[in-house]
């Protein structure tokens, strides 16, 4: 048996329980968790039941890193003792692929060995965030830019230097990854709307311009025009909003724009039909299915991008053991949209 942190009732305190250690099926590995990052969708899962409401008691946590402790009988790309990081799944029928427990399962197509010189703690914030912003920039449902090496070069002509990408919420974890991917892809102008206190940090990651997110919408639009010389931009990735009037107002009026959202986009689609009829609005989902057929190639590339410095490891705050108070604090930190030092939990410590 193992210990696990359970959501037994939506919006109520977490509880500590015990449950069987899951055994891997074909295409899976069993992981003894070293570390697990608490992410905003875990807060929505806890508070509102996002993804999990119909399967209580359930376990939160999709950013997972640890050591392979069991394999199925079928051949596997991994061996016992490999140290890996990967993307769990709140969509799995049972909470086996969730991280707030001592042992979990990962799909072999959504995990990778931790690169030499990196630790599970370095890599654990990447799975969902790196998948999501990869989908935004490089999937055809997103901007569809050619992905950087080790992906093969694009057969079509692509003048990245001429392009402008606007990231709303450049200071968020997904926003910072988008800025770094844009730099890797050679995008010429990368504008981040973020707190000005982040200017140095975001420029170091690859943003060419920072606009104060606390400025008035009309001032932000004017600043975008000053930077680009144009009314609106073609490529907008909104990492933080729930209402999209502002994001749509920043889309080009004359060129076919694309607005990518990380929260459901039905209203944005309707609004864009009125405000920018030629624009495309897409809700991006950071999971393995969304980025198919590139999931395998993405998980091969991700450790390389981190190891070679293309993607930087962020700071975190550690909670030792499956300590309910520390985990609840981590969940609470996402409730007001302020800057967050993500909580990572060490489920097997103590
Ligand atoms: N659809 C998906 O598959 C998917 C995947 C991953 C994440 N998400 C969602 O994406 C959102 C961001 O996740 P995250 O983990 O990256 O968040 P995070 O790192 O916790 O983001 C916090 C930061 O967001 C910025 N922010 C908040 N409100 C803002 C606003 N109105 N304008 C500009 N910046 C604002 C702040 O940056 P400053 O410090 O610059 O003020 C804050 O520091 C969450 O709602 C999450 O659930 C969705």
Automatic annotation (TrEMBL):
Listed InterPro entries: ADH-like_C, ADH-like_N, ER, GroES-like_sf, NAD(P)-bd_dom_sf, Trans-enoyl_RdTase-like
- Which SUPFAM superfamilies has this protein been placed in? GroES-like, NAD(P)-binding Rossmann-fold domains
Identify the Pfam families for this entry.
ADH_N, ADH_zinc_N
Q: Does the keyword Oxidoreductase apply?
A: yes
Q: Which UniProt keywords apply?
A: Oxidoreductase
MF annotations from Gene Ontology: oxidoreductase activity, acting on NAD(P)H
Question: Residue ranges of the Enoyl reductase (ER) domain?
Answer: 11-345
Q: Does the keyword Oxidoreductase apply?
A: yes
Q: Which family does it belong to?
A: Belongs to the zinc-containing alcohol dehydrogenase family.
Q: What is this protein called?
A: GroES-like protein
Tell me which species this is from.
Answer: Hyaloscypha bicolor E
């Amino acid at each position: 048996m193992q210990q696990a942190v359970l959501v037994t009732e939506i919006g109520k305190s977490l509880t500590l329980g015990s449950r069987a250690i899951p055994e891997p099926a074909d295409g899976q590995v069993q992981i003894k968790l070293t570390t697990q990052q608490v992410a905003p969708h875990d807060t929505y899962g806890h508070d509102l039941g996002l993804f999990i409401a119909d399967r209580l008691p359930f376990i939160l946590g999709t950013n997972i890193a640890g050591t392979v402790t069991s394999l199925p009988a079928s051949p596997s790309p991994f061996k016992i003792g490999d140290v890996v990081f990967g993307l769990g799944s709140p969509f799995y029928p049972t909470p086996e692929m969730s991280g707030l427990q001592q042992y979990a399962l990962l799909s072999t197509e959504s995990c990778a060995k931790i690169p030499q010189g990196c630790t599970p703690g370095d890599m654990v914030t990447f799975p969902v965030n790196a998948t999501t912003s990869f989908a935004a920039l490089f999937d055809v449902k997103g901007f569809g830019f050619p992905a950087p090496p080790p992906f093969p070069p694009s057969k079509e002509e692509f003048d990245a230097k001429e392009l402008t990408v606007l990231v709303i919420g450049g200071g968020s974890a997904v926003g910072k990854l988008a800025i770094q991917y844009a730099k890797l892809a050679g995008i010429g102008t990368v504008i981040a709307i973020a707190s000005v206190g982040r200017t140095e940090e975001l420029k170091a990651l690859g943003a060419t311009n920072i606009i104060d997110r606390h400025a008035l919408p009309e001032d932000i639009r004017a600043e975008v025009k000053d930077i680009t010389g144009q009314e609106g931009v073609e490529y907008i990735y909104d990492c933080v909003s729930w209402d999209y009037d502002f994001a749509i107002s920043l889309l080009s009026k004359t060129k076919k724009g694309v607005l990518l959202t990380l929260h459901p986009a039905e209203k944005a689609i309707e609004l864009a039909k009125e405000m920018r009829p030629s624009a495309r609005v897409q809700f991006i989902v950071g999971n393995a299915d969304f980025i198919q057929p590139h999931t395998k190639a993405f998980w091969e590339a991700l450790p390389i991008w981190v190891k070679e410095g293309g993607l930087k490891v962020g700071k975190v705050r550690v909670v030792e053991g499956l300590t309910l108070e520390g985990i609840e604090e981590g969940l609470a930190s996402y409730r007001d949209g302020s800057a967050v030092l993500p909580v990572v939990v060490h489920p097997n410590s103590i």
